[in-house]
Amino acid sequence: MEAAAAVTDTFRPYDAPGRFPTTHQSDVQRAGAGSSSSARQAFGRFYEAYRAPLLAYLRREGRSEAEAQDLLHGFMEVLLENRSLSQFDGEGRFRSWLLKCFRHFLSDVRDRQRALKRGGAAAHVPLDLELHDAPASASQAGRTPVQEYERQFALRFLERVMGRLREEWHARGHAARYEELHVFLLDKQAGPLHAELGRRLQMTEAAVSQEISRLRKRYRALFDDELARLVSRPEDLAAEKAFLLSALRT
C-alpha cells in the first residue's frame, strides 16, 4: 500500500507512548475528528496505544510479520479515511468496539482476496460500526488471537503505570533508587536484602523499607488513576480490574 507508511509518518505520537486515555469518549472522538493539530496528536497516541495489541492479534492468527504490518496500516488508513473513531458512542469498552471493527476489516480483506482469486473484483465494504461479535478465529496452541490482543492491552496498561512512576522518581532526582527498588513492587522477595540495598544507595535499612512502601503506595494510586481512564462509570472499576488481571494470567 503506497499510503500505508504515511500512517506512522504523519501521525507520530506527540506525548509519551501509551499515554492515550483509551476509552474516554471525547478523546476517541478527537482522534477521529479530522486533520486538525489536536486530532493528529490524538490519533498518534491512539496508534501507539493499540499498535501492539492489534499486531499481537494478527501474529497469533499465524500472519507473517510483513502481512501483519500491512494489515495494521490498512486498518489505520480505513479509520482515518472514514473518521471511524468519531463514531464510538461511549457504550461498552472501546477496546472491544475496536476489535469488532478490526475483525470486520479482516473479513472484508479476505472476501476481496477470494474474489480476486476467482477473477472478479469485490466492492469495498465499509466498517460496520454496529457489528455484533463475529465468530472467534480458530484457536491455536496457547492463547487465542483475542486473548493475545487482551493480554497486550493489559501489558500496555501496566507499562503506562510503571512509566508514570518511573518518570516521577526520576524527576525527583531519585533515578538510582527507583531502578534498585521497583523490583519490589510486585514481589516483596524479588530483590536483595534491604540492608544490602541501603549500602548501595547510602541509605539506612529502615529508610529503604520506607521508600519501598512509598513506591508501592504511589504505584497503587497511579494504577487506580489509569484504571479510572478505562471506564465511564465508577461501578465498572472492579470488573475492569478483574479483566486486566485475568488477561495477564492468560
Mean pLDDT comes to: 77
Helix fraction bin:
55-70%
Number of helices: 10
Distance between the termini: 35 Å
Largest sheet: none
Envelope shape: elongated
Strand content: under 5%
**Any idea how many domains?**
2
Number of DSSP strand runs: 0
What structural category arises from helix and sheet content? mainly alpha
Low-confidence stretches: 1-23, 120-140
Spell the H/E element sequence: HHHHHHHHHH
What radius of gyration results from the CA coordinates? 21 Å
Please characterize this protein's 3D structure:
With 250 residues, the chain is mainly α. The chain has two domains: 4-135, no CATH class; 157-249. It has helices spanning 4-10, 25-31, 37-60, 65-82, 94-117, 145-171, 175-181, 194-201, 205-229, 237-249. Helix 8 (194-201) packs across helix 9. The radius of gyration is 21 Å and the shape is elongated.
Name some characteristics of this structure.
250 residues; mainly alpha
Short description:
The protein is mostly helical. It contains 10 helices and no strands. The radius of gyration is 21 Å and the shape is elongated.
